[in-house]
Amino acid sequence: MQLSLTQPSSWILLLLLMTNLLLWKNAASVPMCAMRNARCFTFFEDTFELAGSLSHNISIEVSELFTEFEKHYSKVPGLRDKSPTRCHTSFLPTPENKEQARHTHYEALLKSGEMILDAWESPLDDLVSELSTIKNVPDKIISKVTDIKKKIDAVQKGVNSLMSTMNGDEEKKNPAWSRLPLLQSDNEDTRIRSSYGMISCLDNDFKKVDIYLNVLKCYMLKIDNC
Ligand SMILES: *[C@@H]1O[C@H](CO)[C@@H](O)[C@H](O)[C@H]1NC(C)=O
What we know:
Layout: H1 8-27, E1 34-36, E2 39-41, H2 43-72, H3 98-102, H4 106-119, H5 121-131, H6 139-167, H7 188-220
Antiparallel strand pairs: 1-2
Helix pairs in contact: 1-6, 2-6, 2-7, 4-6, 4-7, 5-6
Bound molecules: 2-acetamido-2-deoxy-beta-D-glucopyranose.
């Protein structure tokens, strides 16, 4: 997308992007824009760059969280029984792997990323509050999940703003999420098992978001060999 700065509408767009990037800055300390030819521009590219980098970091952190949780609660009976295919996002029509992502139109790919990010908005809040009710949950797990939540919020804001820049505002429909009854159980082992199931879904989904946003980053920034 080219921004012509002589048009007022472009200035408004630029301001909107700046506002969004300022929000992002809280989560990731990257420059707000790149200086090229002594001018500050390419917000669009920079947003893709940031989204790619941040989503990659999130996917690593979620994976670490999953391993950490699994190690800590390995003695809980039936921990691994819950199949990761039963996630609230399973039915979303999103590419399964990098090969599929590469063959998806960039707008549809960004939309797929947005769908997954939006779908986790409430469940992630539930997970954070649920974990804090489990006895002796290591601080490391709580701080990791809080940090992940913050970063996911930032990527979501960025992706939402890229989507509305491309498409204008459209109506959004998130997959239905009603708090899992298991998450509210009085039995602590049950809550640990369902938290484990959710973290495994999160792990699965954010590997996908990482793939989508980095395929997009390569495409938008015209990077070779990735
Ligand atoms: C991702 O992690 C790397 C390595 O820790 C860091 O240098 C980079 O700034 C992070 N990216 C973002 C956008 O936070």
